[in-house]
Amino acid sequence: MDSRSRLAFMILLISITLIFVSSNMDDNEYTPGPVTYNAKSVIVGGNPILIFSGSIHYPRSTPEMWPDIIRMAKEGGLNTIATYVFWNAHEPRQGQYNFTGNNDLVKFIRLVAANKMYLVLRLGPFIQAEWNLGGLPFWLREIPNIVFRSYNEPYMKHMKRYIEFMINMMKAEKLFAPQGGPIIMAQVENEYNHVQETYKEKGMQYVKWAADMATALYPSVPWIMCKQKDAPSNVISTCNGRHCADTFVGPNGSDKPSLWTENWTAQYRVFGDPPSQRAAEDIAFSVARFFINNGSMTNYYMYHGGTNFGRTSSSFVTTRYYDEAPIDEFGLIREPKWSHLRELHKTLKLTKNLFLTGTRKVQDINKFVQIVTYEKPENKLCAAFLSNRHKKVHRTVDFRGKQYFLSRRSVTILPNCKNTMFNTELITSQHNSRTFVPSKRANNFKWESYRESIPTYNDLSIQSKSPLELTGMTKDTTDYMWYSTSLNLDKDDLPMRPDILPVIRIQSLGDALLAFVNGQYIGFGHGSFIEKSFTFSKPVSLKVGINHISILAMTVGLPNSGAYMEKRFAGIRAVILQGMSTGTLDITLNQWGHRVAVEGEAHRLFTEDGSKKVKWAPASGPGTPITWYKTRFQAPEGNNPVAIKMERMGKGVIWINGYNIGRYWDNYRSPLGAPSQTEYHVPRSYLKPKNNLLVVYEESSGTIDSIVINTVNRDIICSFMLEDYPPNLDSWKIDNGVLKPPSAEKAKPSAQLTCDPDKFIMEIQFVGFGNPWGSCGSYMQGTCQAFNAKKVVEKVKQDPHHYIQNSDYFLYTILIVLNI
Question: Which residues are catalytic?
């Protein structure tokens, strides 16, 4: 058997949640006070800090989830949380504010402080964030002569009023670090370079005005501008991207620290996208390289993505947001991403003083291999970082008389310039796999349905000669608007051959529509994230006499980026009939009726009182377009997160007990043939023990019997080990301020599998020693296998909650899987 053989385990647990390793953060680092900075770091309360931050957006989860998410972030080695502030969530109507429920920003910040963590407040007010209008409230569009994000008096007036309002709120609550609170930095504007050239001179003026306005309103913390090449000197320019060690030219001044405000942990997804991935190894590699190249902050975007509840997501963005982050949409730790980064943070913090006060030397071995050392000879302190940037080729380098193997795209960290403590490419952490389990209590559905009526021109009170623009009518209160027109046709107007049908062509500015002719459903058409405008074209059956053409047009979120967002439009642009005996008939100017929202929204059928306003009928099987469905269910057993599976449905919206869970879209498939999203998060706090009201509005068609309520767990855990893995971090010791490597016995390759004390291990399902293949939860034996490996592993079980292997024999891979 090859010396680089593999070992893999599968273990069955009866359990609820996985263990959280104690935080390696020293709470003494949390020292609110005056905030300054130099070229090395941000300095808080006189304490220079390296910032390990994670983006967590309070509106994308619930207050009940916040404590655990923030705690897990700290236990993952973070000392800072970053959040955008969502103007349109807080001021949906001019002068009317909302800081309740998911929008309780102050409560969120206080929870961060309670965990002795700092906070970066990204005020914007344009935030992008795959959020409707990039966080700008819709009413702002209706201010006369306004131009967003330009040196435009109407826009600047409202922007300043908002920023001042938020700063005054933070000051009143004493949340800035100089007041004893957690806020150490604030951000004004966001990635403005993307649109600045469009506005030319007014763009340059606006950048300076925004910086001056913000710093004048509160000069006691640093202000930042991300991806702003010409940032004024009174703010700090920062980097966004995946590899800022290589793409960031540095801040706008030699006296400023290098800050990485968005380190993308994966990628947001739009409907039609395949899964988004970014390996833990790649993230760790980029972070290590940033810090050894004078970086002093990384912020993971996102650390917990969460859910775009309701209608908050921007154009075509899925309801699930950055689910591949270290903490997934449901608030569960994603392994090994969470633990691998935690171990990296722990390693880098051990060399913090050298980063801040040591002498840095760089040795470029070749184009790809680099050795960076930080030393303080007077204290006998030295740390070395061996970096290989090549994407495919491994390297071996000589450093101070010893050979080190550098795998491709990796950084090897020697905290004493001798022994390897951490390698970004070698994961010693547990892996896990997510499982959706149908609830035994929640799925006894008895569905009822109510079908919307299809309006005609005379039913609609808002009338005009041509179709009206959609977003200006709906004002971000609904996705939907009806359009209808009627035309009287003679026999001579229709095609002479009965087997030839005319074709209706509807030009839409986006995003989707359903067409009906004489009450009959014709079809569904839509654009895409790349090209929102589209043309719908279908044969139609027309008759002699009055014909009714009705179109339900809709948006799938509003734009969130680019210049002139205040001038983006949607809705029906033109309607023509082709193949008529008299030729092409343009009915765009035929007089149109309009109605904002669909009937069920007006009746609020998704609420207890509203659901009583119409007559429901029993329902099952495949359904019809524009149909509402309702049922009742009990809360699922246990305490695990809850998801509703919408497989084999079409497109629509889900409500539970009146809470808008978000848009679903199952029939828009990725190139892989699967929906971009099938399961949708239902927060436990939205549920009652019994008699929960579930309402689904289906726009096109779907099989209602396929809907399932699931509980969610990550109880499948796996461990993976290589013979050249570095020893466990906890085996290193500090003696008189000097790091000491582990003994030879403790330095042997090892792997650990640990579960929460509330769970216990029942059985090992799979062990592979040799060359097993697959991923966590779906490993299979390879061509080389030691058949007694399972028996050997079972002998090292230490207690019902813990497996560990530390042996010369088990050299390559350990996998563990936990199932309920």
Answer: 191, 262
